[in-house]
């Protein structure tokens, strides 16, 4: 298998194409508290690639009020990769301003074309520079870095990938390090296309039920994997107890879900799908959205099932299919909390940080932003949440500052 990026050509041995079903065939675990259980994780085959996307300068863009654009670009990277290989079950982790994904090396041509299309669309539509890097798992393993993955069943219809192994962090360092990045960046030259169907932004920001929403990131510091796992397990249990998970602390509930009004411009969805806000294609997209919203509001108000679409069931699935807690070598949670709960949570994390066990970042807001990826209105739809005005990206700012000073 030839791997080409930034004018470089490297040859890696690749396992049979049957490895494309690797992630799909993984057994799933159902209790998030067990996210650090090593028994749930499986080595990623050397015939796969680790894909990293993130918005360059995302913190400045968010501080300038462009958090919706940054979030849209992050979710778009998941959409465009999934769409370029629909017959493969693609694991991904949404990080707020980008995503970490894994794809079979046998699909690199399609992947590179899609990532070029993503980068171009983010630049033209949002004036955002999207960093895209592809690191072969074989390259990481040859350097002695492990990468493992687990499958968390958030609901009967949707599962989310959980990642562990120092290879995750090393790959990100390689992609972001200018002295090494050329080997892993996707070159500008070559076929470019992006399919963004399934991306939807049609729900109002969701107000906190308890007072505030908190985007939380925790990174354990021990050099020992077993000690890091012990820290994460303890933190997950502490947070779950404080936030009364899995139910009360969820950032969305059926009663808080309200569709955007028809007078909304829907520029974010139209510009991503068409590259414009006022072209003929963009106008057609907006017209279709408004028509779907009118029908949807009637169905949600009446509870009538039409064409197999059950509005009550759909909202129930939305709550279950929301990606509000995840693990990709750091713990990320987005929770709806009371002030007292947040104070207790900060106290627990600060004590652990003072003991040198971890570093953490928290960003709070009054609303949750939700962006959706809809394959089907019957079960197969996932919903990505982040805090309004910054969320995960600003929570990470404190961690970066602390680690820089170590």
Describe the structure.
The chain has a domain at 2-197: 2-Layer Sandwich (Alpha-Beta Plaits), CATH 3.30.70. It is 37% helix and 24% strand. It is built from eleven helices and 19 strands. It has helices at 58-63, 67-84, 108-126, 137-142, 166-176, 225-243, 267-274, 280-302, 311-320, 339-354, 391-404; strands spanning 2-5, 8-11, 28-29, 42-43, 48-55, 92-94, 98-104, 130-136, 148-153, 159-164, 199-200, 206-207, 212-220, 322-323, 325-327, 331-337, 358-365, 367-374, 381-387. Strands 11, 12, 14, 18 and 19 form a five-stranded mixed sheet that branches. A hairpin with a 3-residue loop joins strand 15 and strand 16. Helix 2 (67-84) packs antiparallel against helix 3, helix 6 runs antiparallel to helix 10 (339-354) and helix 7 (267-274) packs across helix 8 (280-302).
Lay out the secondary structure.
Elements: E1 2-5, E2 8-11, E3 28-29, E4 42-43, E5 48-55, H1 58-63, H2 67-84, E6 92-94, E7 98-104, H3 108-126, E8 130-136, H4 137-142, E9 148-153, E10 159-164, H5 166-176, E11 199-200, E12 206-207, E13 212-220, H6 225-243, H7 267-274, H8 280-302, H9 311-320, E14 322-323, E15 325-327, E16 331-337, H10 339-354, E17 358-365, E18 367-374, E19 381-387, H11 391-404
Parallel strand pairs: 3-9, 14-19
Antiparallel strand pairs: 1-2, 4-9, 5-7, 5-8, 6-7, 9-10, 11-18, 12-18, 13-16, 13-17, 15-16, 18-19
